[in-house]
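Per-residue structure
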Amino acid sequence: MQPAATPRRGDFLFLLAVFFTALAFRVALFYSGFVDIDYNTNDSWQYLDMGRSLLRGTFAQDGVITMNRTPGYPAFLAAVFALFGESQLSVTASQMVLDALSCVMVLQMGLWLGVNRWAAGLTAVMVATCLFTATYTTQALTETVYTFVLTLGLWVLLLPSRAGSEEAYGTTTSRVLLSGLVFGFGVLVRPSMALAALPFAALMLLRSVLMHGWRGALSLRRLAAPAAFSAGLLVLVLPWMARNYLTFPAQYGAPDEQVTLLGMKSGIPTYKHVYTKEFNAFLRSQEEPYVQTEACTFPVVARFVYPEETQDLKRAFAKLEHDVKTTSIYRKESLPAFVEITRKRYAAAPRLYVTAPLSKFLKIWIAPRISVLWKGTSGHNSGRGLIVLMTLYSTFYVGLGFLGLTVGLRQASPVAAVYLLSQILGHSLTYMYIFPTPQSRYAVPVFPLFCLAAGLLASHAHKLASARWKL
């Protein structure tokens, strides 16, 4: 990693201005009427109830000890309730401040990496006025806290260090340990963070191997950093996993595949079939756009690939819907039909092995995030003009972020490039294969890092232009 840029006079005032600008933008958006404030979403009541239970010294939902959700976001809510009281105002205001701090961290990382003033201004505008991250501050959901944690994980890696103290990984072991702790808390906020930890560790090891060969990369001195990262992550995650296993031993002995050491895959009975291997494989075979109004009903948008598929699916979903709506949970007898449909789909259209996951990748990163902004509105019930506009808006952030990753970020800081790439890989693989029900909101927490990459790209382009045309 290049040495952090020497702090320039006025940087503190610049960061302070970005903080208050980002905060003011979020407050103005809240009162503007431009978005329909949806504080209590379908999942919010669970988080709020668990936050209250933590104040009583337990982790429960409706008074019952649970592992339905990981405890990171409920712990944040509990802290807010303890400090400021339980209200929509206290949660929303706290999340607005937290998101404004994410904006400051992004800009500060850019300054550390030496972006010029013009590029720093672009970064500041992009991150402070991002409609997606700003709107989520108004909802009792994990997104804002997860965004902050994801940004903090890179910020601690890039903290300025003494000259000559950096190691083969482009940062220090102590910084990697701090990032591991942040990753660990991120997993407790949203388990998908765990899928980014694996490529991060693998890519860091690969970089060390390319620089020093296998013998050098596997030396005790260079293994200290990945060991520190793992220790930081596990020291927070392992106690939660142990708590789950010791508290609910009977559930881990049941062959229903509905639990992991991080907790239940779903605590909603009418949604449990989505996480079975049979229905999960069926979803993996679907090309986007694929839309169901309910998890157990026939899709309203889908691409059929063999002649009898429509009728096969109608029969399969009719049985599944009957079971779910009469007993509140699926029956295993409902699932073999989906296995057969999946087999027929791949036999009729082998392209699905490539096009189905690729379409999910595109949906995660490029799809218009309309549902983030207006309650009850999404890409399949909006006008064409709005879909095009929001797709372009989303692509602006993602496109500059991907370009910045390949050019500006990679040249400015290899460890930062590895971090962003690991987040892209982790989130992509999660919703392409493991939980193949991608929603565009799942990628929103990565947007601040895209703003950093865009600023470094702009700074790099400006330097090239200045050298070529003597600007």
The chain has a mean pLDDT of 87. The chain has 18 helices and four strands.
